[in-house]
């Protein structure tokens, strides 16, 4: 039975016009409907009296202003606290609030999807993260919590500023995770899995704040697993391959930019494993060894560890190999993934191949010379990213290295900035990474403008090592 207080006090027409509804009593037609000779009705649905409940994220924001707890926005019911701790076998060091935060954030596709090629990879990635946490909670809990605390929670503004308390807590957790990485020992395949999960989580945190120390972390992780990895004849499980490809790709990118050597040689999946598509590098797994070879040749040219003629010959052979490279496409590729994901993966293979050829070009010809070929490759990369974004309806993932290589050829500073911010998939997650990229590219262009000495690709390591621009241009 409907209470009298729930009856509409205005007719439907007055309510829609947001005007006062005047009538002699609740039975007669109102003055407006009578004057216009319209039927006066009150047929809109009844609503419960009282104030509507506020959205969850607003409730959390209000609680946060008046509380000093770790995460006042998290509402943990008593019947869930014990369940979460039991599910993940979390030791007492991880608070109930933190355990629930890890669960809620990793269960949120919008967070995980920032780092993967598409939603189809989210469940497998989430399962891998949770299984590793259950297997080695004491090792991974600090790294996981550091990542969760360093980003806005689900429902919060992605570009919002974190409180000092949140930042302090995330840094303390990250420091604890790094301490565990320094003392970690890897003796078997199970240790390899845990080490890769730890390294990948720390990298996620470091990327959030610009990625400056990425190379040191990658080198440490890959150095720890190298003895077992190189002696392990069987291929790693797909869950571990995802973390491995991520760390290897990150290290290879930094080695190319800093003129350093990779820690280990990546072994792509065997040819018979044609159905495997990596959640980070997609179909580019067989291209990674060629990118690592570029690192070795760049290092050799900068440090003159080989005769120049010998290195140039190897560069030409590698160029032929990369030009002939084609990804291994699974038989049911287009049926297994969404149109957006297929577009992203195919775009990634094309722009990464072009980026490798562009680097080869700049190892043979200094910046500012042989411009027609260089600009053609750079503009093709940028155009491919633009088309993929239009077709897929979202920014392509895992293509930032190719984007940076192309932007090094763009002379206009504003255009470079626009391209980095619009085409990068991690621009929202890590504005500091974009700022770091802009600073790096601007420093290269500043050195080029001095025109004192030709600058090849293998000289870029001096920029990342904060060498004075005048010194770089006087090589």
**N- to C-terminal distance:** 88 Å
Q: Which regions contain 5 or more consecutive residues with pLDDT less than 50?
A: 1-5, 54-89, 467-475
Which structural class do the helices and strands define?
mainly alpha
**Main sheet makeup:** none
Rounded mean pLDDT score: 81
Q: What share of residues are in beta strands? A: under 5%
Helix content: 55-70%
Number of domains: 3
- Give helix and strand order, one letter per element, not per position: HHHHHHHHHHHHHHHHHHHHHH
Q: What is the radius of gyration computed over CA atoms, rounded to a whole number of angstroms?
A: 28 Å
Would you count the extended β strands for me?
Answer: 0
**What gross morphology would you assign?**
globular
Number of helices: 22
Give an overview of the whole structure.
There is one protein chain. With 475 residues, this protein is mainly α. It has 22 helices and no strands. It folds into three domains: 7-41; 90-234, no CATH class; 275-474. Helix content is 60%, strand content 0%. The longest helix is centred in the last third of the chain and has 26 residues, at 339-364. The radius of gyration is 28 Å and the shape is globular. The model is unreliable at 1-5, 54-89 and 467-475 (pLDDT under 50).
Walk me through the topology.
Layout: H1 12-17, H2 31-35, H3 56-65, H4 78-88, H5 96-106, H6 109-112, H7 122-135, H8 137-149, H9 164-183, H10 189-208, H11 214-231, H12 238-258, H13 288-303, H14 308-324, H15 333-336, H16 339-364, H17 371-392, H18 400-407, H19 413-423, H20 431-450, H21 461-464, H22 469-473
Helix pairs in contact: 4-5, 5-8, 7-8, 8-9, 8-10, 9-10, 10-11, 10-12, 11-12, 12-13, 13-14, 13-16, 14-16, 16-17, 16-18, 17-18, 18-19, 19-20
